[in-house]
User: Fold these one by one.
Assistant:
Number 1:
Amino acid sequence: MLDAKEVNLEEESSRFRKLTGFSRKLQLAMGILTPLTGVAFILNVPYYINGVSLHPQQFLGLMLSFVLTYIYLAAPFKKGHTNQSVPWFDWLFIGISVCGGLYVAFFYDQLLMSIGVVDPVTVAIGSSLILAILEATRRLTGWPLLIIIAVFALYGRYGYLLPGFLAAREITWPRLINQLYLGSEFVFGTALQIAGMVVLAFVLFGQFLFGTGGASFLLNVAQAGMGRYRGGPAKIAIVASALFGTLSGNAVGNVAAIGVVTIPLMKRTGYPAYFSGAVEAVSSTGGTIMPPVMGAAAFIMAQFLGLPYYQVALVAAIPAVLYYLGQFIQVDLRAAKEGMKGIPKEELPTWKNTLKTGWVYIAPVIVLIYALFGLGLRAELAAMYSLGSLMLVALISPSTRNYWKKIPKMLEDTTVGMLEISVVCAAAGLVIGVMSYTGLGLSFSRLLTELGGGNLLLLAFLTAIASTILGMGMPVTATYLFLSVLAAPAMVKMGVEPLLAHLFVFYFGAYSFLTPPVCLAVYAAASIAKAPMFKTAVQALKLASAGYIVPFIFLYKPATVFMGQPLEVAFSIIDGLLAVFALAVAAENYFRRPLKVVERILYLVSSLAFFVPGWESRIVALVLLVLLLAFNYFYKTSNSITEADSITPADSVTKA
């Protein structure tokens, strides 16, 4: 049996200080209090204790003070300086964070009544807290996001000096800071609220799931299901990363956690190092778009659009399947081309043993899916029900019943998992607030519409490029938050359904983890694989080719994502499946034998034709694909592989 070792979920901890004494005790306290405060927020505990309902901003003020305190205790001013005590200026930042957060937590009612009044004390506390948020953002995410925020802040103050549609109304620094600090849609706005409720609930659930051994179970499921087939390790990587990624929503974290197991397996079976790294990078990035959980941005999207989360997840299901299907077919074709075999059966876990020990983890996932899609509960409540069921069933199994000893660590791991998303959402609130307050979002949307010239395809290309560029080096959530205000409204004006417009920018923001030159998931995978980064990135683009095309499909064929009559939905989904198959064959340049240049081009033409609306294009695409497959099947060359190793479309899709 393969070593289904527990996945290390603490890769981020290598960036943090190793504290002792009082500093470590305070860090642990913050690590435990953050998720407990979030749970109290979700369950509205104060109301059941004394009948008082607090403003969301009061909970968020408390949580943000805990998160920032943890960051300044743990994250050094410069990367690499981890073995040191907390310097005096970080204690100063901690004091600022506590004062700024608790000021909102305890006095928000009074502050809300006088929000239009510029009070020097409030301005001083607010500006200090904003500075603390920005510095925490720099330490965790780097300079790109910080620079963008600084540009928008300067625009909010001096935008009135610009000409034409870029001009904004004049506002003084004290009034701008007052608004950014206390406004309901700014620092403590929707983005941070979703992070503090929905994202925290799922991170907490994920940490309890993995803390009780769930990561090994997910890996064993992938091994038992895919390991024995040709190219088995690559297929294990795809399935394991999809299962793991949909619960974590972190592409780089997925690579670090799963890749240490799957990449060496792929290399051992014969896949080149660069190909192995690319497979893991693409698989892990797909976890951010894979229902039922997806990433934090999906929850924010549902809140922005006023939709139940399950509706967002349902619409995103087919694009995610097509994304993984395209990758799956390519690795299968590569395995057929190279004559690779599966992993010996005796080295794999059996389904019987996997399910016998893993039922503990299946039950809470079923509860989660039923609560989301069956009962239609709010996402954060569904996660709480699922967490509760996990804690109950874990007490029954002998292998997990002692999990309660790990609860403090799992709570702290939850906080570590929340650090980046919390400060990113708080920082992004500053940008969203400036765009809303100055009207820049509407102006930029109008500019994009004019550049598109009424052509949806051109506008979509411009938006995809903007999404990819903005996403380079930035978290998906921050990218989505910006583009949901800047770019998505322009697509809506062109007649695109709001949910599809938001999904479009969300996907291309997520794909920035794969798109050179700043492709963080590829960096991580190439490092593990010991492969050239650029070569790995080029291969990742090929493996993820379906992901770059599918968003354009649902813009023109909304039925692909269940928006249409049942018959049209069925035909559109079939179109998508065939298109992805043809695209994968063209990308891998192989089907039963190496393809000639003309064949490869025709496969690509067939794939693209499936994307065009109308029965005429569908018939042309289908006829062309059938002719290509028939020619491929009957054409004999000296380089053809044996019948035993041949592959058919059905094999590539259903063999697992």
Note: The two ends are 19 Å apart (CA to CA).
Number 2:
Amino acid sequence: MLKEELLKRLDKVRFTRAKKLGYKTPDDILRSNENPLYSEGISIIIPTYKGQDVIKGCLESLARQTLNQSLFEVIIVINGEKDNTEEVIKDFAETNKMTNIKIIVMDEAGASVARNKGISLASRQYCTFVDDDDYLSENFLEEMYRLSDLNTIVISQIHNVEVDGKIQSSNPLNRQILKSVISRQHPYNKLNMVLTINACKLIPTMSLQQFRFDETLRSGEDVAFFTDLVIKNDFKYVVAPIAKKVIYYRVLRDNSVSRQKMTFDFNVVQRADVIGKLNELLSVDELAPVKRGFIERKILAQSSFIKKYYEEHQNQYGEIMEELTLRYFTYFPYHLLNEKRVERLVISYCFPPYNDTSGNVMAKRMREASKVSDVIYNTMDSARSKSYTLNKMVDDLINSRMPINSPTSFSNWRDIKAFIEMGMQEIEEKVKGRGAYKEVVSRALWPASHFLAYQYKRQYPESRWIAEFSDPLLFDIEAKKRQVDIADNQYIKSLETSVKKEGMPAGNTDNLFFWCEYLPYVFADELIFTNKHQLKYMMDVFPINEVKEIIKKKAIIAPHPTLPERYYHLEEVDYPLISDDHVNLAYFGNFYSKRNLNDIFEGLKLTGDNVRQRILVHVFTSKPQELEYSLKGDLLEDNIIVNGYVDFYKFLNLCTQFDCLIVNDSTTLDNKDINPYLPSKLSDYSGSGSEIWGIYEEGSILSESDHVEYLTPLNDFKAAAEVYTQLMNKKFKH
């Protein structure tokens, strides 16, 4: 995706410039070599604001360059309030016969504005930036040009010049440049600071002209600009030979970023502005890890200014966090602020950025609790896709993430055991530093979460364990007993011994799903069930009667949380298929034998033509082709609009756009006495502001919901038809 976009932008740059040179079509460029797009040599871009007292030193260094003047142009952009800078430059150019100096005068102030103007005017193959009070070694242009190539950025040394004129060759930037010559690391790592400053680089002009400095940023614009440039190009990076002493001399100023006075505006607001721009580059989920890591290091560097401010103004934690969280960063190192505020350990085998409903629910639980936590989860790359934007839901409440690189499995004991052992190693390192957590919270659809939480609780009994069940585990949706053996006799014996010490029966089974329920029942301090039927069903079918009174005492009923309204507008979706001339209903989710679309479709068929022609049902599913095929030639083919799966925040935003959202129960009464399930998307629907139609199984939790405007029983197609009629009459006031 990035490469395709880049090629399009590259073509735009190439053809725009070609038109200026007289070419009319792309073929003209290919047929002619007489008038190349760029002249040979280097364009030097110098922005200056009230530079009359400093720019002469810069110009003198350009006049002394060993590169022939015919091979470089000097583009000086004077902007903002005027002084005598223009006269100083003209006098210097005339005295030194430098006919290659171009002066552009702009009323608009700002270094970014000036640099953008200079970039747009560059006519040579390569560009370099020089600040008006900095200067270059005499061989700078010649040596840099000698190493130039159209896919290469050439880097010089950089020496600091102190206010008293003393030259400091040993500075962090230059040490990084010197070390890079012998380092085998990726350039994003060994040159991470150098790559995102304006100075000491020679850059291919065609690549440079694809990008612009962000003129809204008041500082840090070079970091945002160059991160964008280097991430979206696969440049080679060459350092000029150290022995050649190719040097950019950077004059340190009292108003430089490193010497800025500490203020909330500079340290927090302006840094957050830059971090926001860097986060935009992280929104591409398929971004190469080395590039993602580079961007995150840039964010970390900017965040260090925020941390420094926080350390001296800890009473402003709330204001700082508000400034950050309302920007909904995909990535921010909140541990810099949260280290001393950790209250709990969260164990969620699947967790954002992995796309998984159970992981999202845990993140919503954390949002609801608003407690700073360390989070431990498994790397799920083999089973789930990633969406880094999911981190926005909860990252500000996380101090440390501890991803465990164990094989992903729902029920393979060997893989779960690996997760437990590796997870405990990570946890023990944390506990060594700060002591046991006040609370440990685990949530199981994935059984490994509770097994690791149990192991932690046994080792640190002073921590309060809160265990949540997403769904019944011992019995599946068809009431069939799940049976997977824990192939570890020694472990089973240890479990039996531990429950006996608590006065409970041993269990006499090595079934993983039995123990995944039994251990929290016995050892957790609080048990969370999403609805009262789930609690009743799980107690009724559990084979150890002695534990049931304990379950009742510990049980808390907590429906799935609903995110605040602002999350429904993080990603605005332009969905053009909603029609003002129709009632627009939406169904999100998959369909199968226990949860299907029969009521939706058969009910619509029972309506008259006058109703049906006013109804559109928009289905968003991971099986769009299957549904489209089944609708071919059907009476409802024009009424059902089939869409593919959408990401979580797009789903939330789409929920706000429809007249009515449809949620339906799973069919369970053919094999269960009570329906223990409540669709988690009901909690997402309820925050959307749209009306909700619930298609319920008799006696289910959905049938009692206060969030649902329309309720019809499963398989009552006539009742479903009446809902369509009500919706049409309401919208069109028939």
Note: Residues 29-33 have pLDDT under 50 and may be disordered.
Number 3:
Amino acid sequence: MRISKSFSARLSATILLVTSILFITAIMVVSYYSHKLIAEEAIKSASNVLYTTTIDINKTLDRVESTVNNMQWIVEEHLDDTTYLYHITTEIVASNEEIVGSTIAFIPEFFKGKHYFSPYSCNDENDSIIVKQLGNDKYNYFEMEWFDVPFKTKEPHWSNPYFDEGGGQVMMTTYSLPLTDKQGNIFAILTADISLEWLTQKISSLHPYENSFTFLLCKDGYYITGDQPNKTMKYDAETQNKTHNEYEQLGKRMIAGDSGTLQIGDYNAFAVYGPLYNGWSTAIISPYKDVFARLMRMNLIIIVVSSIGLFLLFFACFRTIRKLTQPITEFTVAALNMAKGNFQARLPQIHSQDEMLQLYNSFDYMQKSLTHYVQELRSTTKENERMESELNIARQIQLSMVPTNFPNNEKYDIHATLQPAREVGGDFYDFLVVNDVIFFVIGDVSGKGVPAALVMSITRAAFRFLGGLGLSIDKMIEKINGTLCTRNETNMFVTLFAGKIDLKTGLLSYCNAGHNPLIICHADGNAEYLHAKPNIAVGVFDGIPFNPEQIQLEKGCRLILYTDGVTEAEDRDKKQYGEQRLLDFAQNIEKNESAEELVSNLMTDVKSFTKDAEQNDDITVLTITLKQE
């Protein structure tokens, strides 16, 4: 037995398939909600980190601004002492570790004879504070952003990132505070420089995930710090792909001072962003591959473990089911042996009290029943064979009782056929010629089978005997009726059409006892039904009269007599052959067609109509042709 076709293997595979589908569905549902939950938690975690960092940077920037703002009145009180002004900038640098440099940049000629005057203090490479004068022709601070913007706007200002060549010699951003006199005129700009290296270290330390990166963006769209400090967030018209569009959207939101989250590149990453109070904005971008890394590893472990578990499940199910279904295999072998005739085939021993025991009891009962049935079948078969043989003999006897030698001479042509629906039937026909008179009859016994055949034989015998006596047609039928009514406990009756033709005169005497009307085919080719006076069938009531009739026949005419097996023959759709179709057939008979050909053609037409439908009644046809001399 091949394992791929065994019941246990197929059932185990079905269990494995259903289990796998349920498991995969569960994994997908859990994975979907896990991804969703982890993504939400990741965004929440990154937002918390960003919020904490924002607070920290705001505190630092606030300290820088406070330091500078608190020095404003001191500068105003010591404008007459230029040496002390250097001391003020030195104190600003010394008092705040985030500040790497500070200057008081005066407007031109504030001190007579000094176009540039800007006392400056900064940290050197050894973290020592040095002081110097910044303003000169090579260092025209009047045109620099940190001086020009607050001078024009009269508002404090944080500059864009720049490299302070000639000053602190580092990448920095500068907080500038305009100093005004009593009339509100600006006479100097007090500044504090913050090294971008400090901010870079501060920002770069923020890694919620391994490949996360954080950056600060100023109001003009420049990076203050990040992985690309000189890159702007302005839209690049030459790169139109979706990812750059999303980064452009992120930059616009940050420049606008918004806060929130943004999906990047078909959910490849997400960004959380928020503003600082000075107009800058900070953002953290984290790739989802880092967010879901642990989940993917866990899913992989679950898949591997589950695959091993499913394999073990299949193996365990296969072994268990194979053991449980082993009796079924033995029952199958026993069933095959019983099908081959061995009804004593050994059945498997069943010790469990479950369906297998019920199956064993069923097989055991079937064995005993089959043994008994076969014994009865053999006996019945012998009896059926005997009865079939006897019925075949009865059929032969019945067919031998009706004439099979049909006369065909210069005066008349007779032919007939009888096809029982069963082995024996109730239809019959007969004819005899006595002194140039043709006696003929056709009949149909109620019912079928052997009883009908017995009644048929009695009726035919009575007709032949009475016809030989030369009785009239009505008297003949009355005698036949009396014979059949005697001791007719089964109430069987016969419809028949009997008649005699005087060949010398062409006179037809006939009587219809409840039978189908015959068809007269005239010599000119026209055909019609001969509707006779109604008479009751024979064998119903004894002593009743039967009304005879007469009609003159011309030479060359034909008589077609038939039983209802012709007109009531049915096709597969239960549609009957019908009287009209029979009449149409009669009107198309060839003029020189013999009686035998006529009967054969009619039977062929009936079979063509019914095709392969089962014959439902006996079919009998009798035709008589009066030839033209």
Note: DSSP finds 14 helices and 22 strands in the chain.
